[in-house]
Amino acid sequence: MVAEPEEQHLIDLQLEDFKNQEKLFGKPLTIKVIGKKTLATWWESYGNEHLELQRFVIRVLSLTCSSSGCERNQSAFEMVRT
């Protein structure tokens, strides 16, 4: 989802801060509210120190989760097969 190698590298480094709860990710308030906000809202609020990771995560969270496209294709394939 990220084409630029430099941005990929920054996201990878910033992801380590998230996993290790470093910088803003380790603050008590940041940890306390993670279950009380939607994930996209949490990232908007607390991802400011990690802009590349913040943009990437919000992009991923904004993806539509649906199987309707697959089901539509399956119906078309069924018609072709019969």
Overall mean confidence score, pLDDT: 86
Which parts are unreliable, with pLDDT below 50 for 5 consecutive residues or more? Answer: none
Shape: elongated
State the share of residues found in helices, binned by percent. Answer: 55-70%
Overall domain count: 1
Number of helices: 5
Question: What's the alpha carbon Rg, rounded to whole Å?
Answer: 18 Å
**Main beta sheet strand tally, sense and closure:** none
Question: Can I get a quick summary?
Answer:
This protein is mainly alpha-helical and 82 residues long. 65% of the residues lie in helices and 0% in strands.
Write the layout of secondary structure elements.
Layout (H helix, E strand, L loop, with lengths): L4 H15 L8 H5 L6 H8 L4 H11 L6 H14 L1
Helix pairs in contact: 3-4
